[in-house]
Amino acid sequence: MRTLVVAEGILPLDGTGDTPRALLLDGDRIAWRGGGGGEYPPADQVMDLGAAWVTPAFVDAHVHATATGLALSGVDLAGARSAVECLDRVRRHAAGARPAEVVIGTRWDDFGWPGGRPTAASLTEAAGGRAVLLIRVDGHSCLVDERTLARLDLVALEGVDRDPAGMTTGWLREAASEAAMTLVRSEISPDQLEAARRATCEKAVALGIGSMHEMGHPGLSGLDDALAWAAGEWPVEVVTWWAELDPCPQPGLRPGGDLFLDGSIGTCTAATSQPYSCSGAMTRGELFHPDDAVAEFFAAHTRAGRGAGVHAIGDRAIEQAVGAIEAAARVAGGDLVRRCRHRIEHAELPSRDHVRRIAELGVVASVQPAFDATWGGDGGLYAARFGARAARDTNPFAWFADAGVPLAFGSDSTVTPLDPWGAVVAAERHLGGWSLSREAALVAHTLGGRYAAGQDDVGPLRAGFRADLAVWPANPLEAEDPRALRCLATVVAGKVVH
User: Helices 315-332 and 352-361: crossing angle, nearest 10°?
Assistant: First the structure.
């Protein structure tokens, strides 16, 4: 079936500067583009989009997709200004929940909360005795109820918060948080998990997202969930990564991805070279793996010609990642390393030297612009942790772009929501001044993820490439605020999925 798509304008994002008006789709491929003079090749059908504009479909290069779907039906704690408000939302949600249903809440952020966090006892009361799992906005800590707390081996786990009397409070970080997530996840029915996955896909394609990089993690989602994403048939394309150091990845899964080298800024576990402020104390965070293990991880995957990824937020973690990839380059050669397209997730606190070395290695910076919009600025979390001056240099998108580092944009949903135009605007308006042009940001959020995944036949809208595109009511590059644009249609591999 050959379909001629005619629109007011098409943004192919292929570097030519062309603005064609038509695409000929032949099955899942683009067979032709042009139409400036109104002459079109023969087609079986014509799809006239009128005044609409067409772009490549978005790629969200970092998603926790099942958690995203569960959050859509859970308690949204974004914007809660205190423990009292958090508990009130839990109470109202629990009032309408089934007796055995787990209360799952996401996106709470206690930065600036007066009086601290809710306790396990207060969550038990608010949820009427139901199991409660409230995942902090950064995904690296959680709050749980008394019954869930009692079922965990708190003696063997690191990251258990205790009050001055030595009693557990219900706040769990890193390893303890992952154990709680695993425990609660085992109580969620297969039907509920499948419904959550479908809900995420529907949300994604409605936003013009044609591909997601699912970041599977043993402590956050489990191997069964990663394999379900890799084996399933979804309206959105799902490329699945798996966060283990094992040099032999599971079939169908890509290596690393969200493999934690350190933690997060909000939970005070991001690994930095200089101490930073955390609730009145000073910390340098922590590295979760020894240098030699990370070096062997990258060396093994480089030898196999596979692109691997790691989560690195603080400069000390970024240094560990870059040093490990440099070691692989010394053994296997720089050309092979560059062909692998290894990736660093987040890279929030790089130095200029890190950026230079990342560029030389051909490493992809997989970043989340919404982080800057949410926690940047002189009065935000970054400033509170590192000081206003250092905070302005977090998430420096322009540094990467100027050095020639490939950028891939994502949301890290549920940390920040699926919102591709929001990410584009956040990169365009970086609070420290390290902004990108709108077109460069759009390229990072469409073609960047394709590059990171090694999909060299998908992305720009030109002949021979797979037909993955999104349709908008106006030219996104000229819209006053593209966040107001509603996606009119999303096409993945030539099929209309929204």
Answer: 30
44 & 149 share domain: no
Residue 399, H or E segment: helix 397-403
Q: Is there a single domain that holds both residue 73 and residue 127?
A: yes
What type of residue is 278? C
Residue 470 covered by a domain: no
> Roughly what angle, to the nearest 10 degrees, separates helices 291-303 and 315-332?
40
Name the domain count of the chain: 3
Q: Peptide bond preceding 414: is omega within 30 degrees of 0, i.e. cis? A: yes
Task: Indicate if 140 and 231 belong to the same structural domain.
Answer: no
Determine the structural domain holding residue 418 and report its residue range.
Answer: 190-459
> Model-level pTM greater than 0.90?
yes
310 DSSP β-pair partners: 344
Is residue 117 packed enough to be buried (19+ CB in 10 Å), middle (13-18) or exposed (0-12)? Answer: buried
> Does one domain contain both 219 and 355?
yes
Residue ranges, the chain, pLDDT below 50? none
3-state helix, strand, coil in the chain (%, to 5): 35, 20, 45
State whether 216 and 169 are in the same domain: no
| Residue showing tokens 């409660």 | 132
pLDDT of amino acid 224? 93
What is the reported pLDDT for 100? 66
Q: Are 151 and 127 in contact (CB under 8 A)?
A: no
DSSP state of 258: S
> 37 with 76, same domain?
no
Provide the pLDDT for residue 213. 98
Structural domain includes residue 62 = no
d(CA 45, CA 43): 5
Strands 45-48 and 160-162 turn out to be unpaired
Which CATH number does the domain housing residue 234 bear?
A: 3.20.20.140
Question: For the residues of 355-391, what is the DSSP string, one character each?
Answer: HHHHHHHT-EEEE-HHHHHHH-STTSHHHHHH-HHHH
- 226 vs 459: CA distance, rounded Å: 25
Cα distance between the two ends of the chain = 19
pLDDT given for residue 187 in this prediction: 83
